[in-house]
Amino acid sequence: MSPILSERVAALVKAASAVVGRLDLRAVLEHTVLLARDLTGAHYAALGVIGEHGSLVDFVYVGVDDDRARAIGTPPTGKGVLGLLMNRGETVRVDDIHTHPEFAGYPRHHPEMSSFLGVPVRAGDHIFGNLYLADKPGGFTDEDQILVEALAAIAGGAVSTARLHRQLTRLALVEDRERIARDLHDAVIQDLFAVGLELQGLSLTVEDPNVAAKLADAVERLDEAIGSLRSFIFDLRTLANALLDPARTIKDLVDRLVQPAGMTAEVAVADLGEVSPSRFDDLVQMIREAVSNAVRHADTDRIEVGVRRVDDHIVAEVVDQGRGFDPATVERGMGLDNLWARASEIGGEVRIDSSPGEGTRVTIRVPG
Asked: Where does residue 191 rank: exposed (0-12), middle (13-18), buried (19+ CB within 10 A)?
């Protein structure tokens, strides 16, 4: 082994320990991307996460600034060379990506790239995603490929560990919420129901009509309290289940909103990491409002919904190519007040980019 390669392997081993030691999945992905760039000297690095349907559901990257990323828009969906890498699960390395037979061009505002190295990241027996590197001066070498493939293997193990930790954490949360719901139902509701029966029986024995009326009113209030508690218990159990599969929860919500209107929706939910139940509920309600607005007012047959984590926030985007409007002059009552009010309450942010005939993009940021 050459002295230079020995030094690079030593750097890989040292840095990889930081990847393996992380239990937060998002941190694993971000650290892997940074390490891959530093090890190879590439200008661009990214890790695309593959969803259950074989498409990219998250895209962690370095080398592209925020303004350009916003101009590009939604992350890649796995076409061209990226799609080839996803389908074959094999390393792809070329000196000039433009010469590859599967190259399908770039989206608008995407930076030009030349040399390319793509390596699958396996978590257990499954391909979790792919690690992409581009624009290394002089092109990628055999040594680069060996190092990045080793890093991908290490990252795959770290991904499996982080996933298991998250599942155990969520299971503990669900079990705790189930216990609370069960205790509320078995103890509190039953006690309230028994008190209500006693008051109802007592109201039949008193002769003073005013007292009887007050007892009847108390029974009615207890019935309302029991109804509210049952609703709260239902919400506890529903939200607990939603936290186990937030992507499915959001997709099901969007589908329920668009299908009655004959619309279709493309929904991409990246790994959100650990999200508190209250914040996830806020996120879901704000997505509901934004999608409902598009269904009612956009005059289009298709919308796109993307949800991902960006640092310490969860960002959701609802995009349509409908008729659009001028946010500065639109009349209230389109649900925008609800969005802004909820965002203000939780320290979040709502941004609306729209103009007549150009469609609408609603960007929601909530603390995560």
From this structure: exposed
In this structure, the chain runs to a length of 368
115 lies in the same domain as 212: no
Query: What is the spatial distance between Cα 180 and Cα 183, in angstroms, rounded to a whole number?
Result: 5
Report the Cα 205 to chain-centroid distance in Å: 59
Residue whose token pair is 């409902």: 292
Domain identity same for 155 and 11: yes
Residue 44 has pLDDT above 90, yes or no: yes
Sheet holding 313-320, edge to edge: 264-269, 302-310, 313-320, 360-367, 349-354
Order of strands across the sheet that contains 126-134: 56-62, 44-50, 126-134, 116-123, 92-94
CATH number at residue 269: 3.30.565.10
- Quick: pLDDT tens for 92-129: 999 999 898 888 888 888 899 999 999 998 876 788 88
Task: Please name every residue paired with 314 in a beta bridge, in sequence order, or none if there are none.
Answer: 309, 366
- The answer to whether the beta carbons of residues 335 and 362 sit under 8 Å apart is no
In terms of domains, do 18 and 148 share one?
A: yes
Report the chain's terminal Cα–Cα distance, integer Å.
Answer: 46
C-alpha angle 328/333/334, rounded to 5°?
Answer: 75
Both tokens of residue 89?
């699960």
Domain span holding position 53: 3-163
Q: How far is 179 from 27, CA to CA, in rounded Å?
A: 31
pTM reported for the whole predicted model = 0.53
Query: Residue 184 and residue 191: Cα distance in Å, rounded?
Result: 10
186 pLDDT band, cuts 50/70/90, is low
What does the alpha-carbon distance between residue 75 and residue 158 come to, in Å, rounded to a whole number?
A: 24
User: How distant, in Å, are the alpha carbons of 53, 234, 290, 303, 362 from that of 322?
Assistant: 27, 36, 14, 9, 13
CA distance 221 to 44: 63
| DSSP class of 98 | G
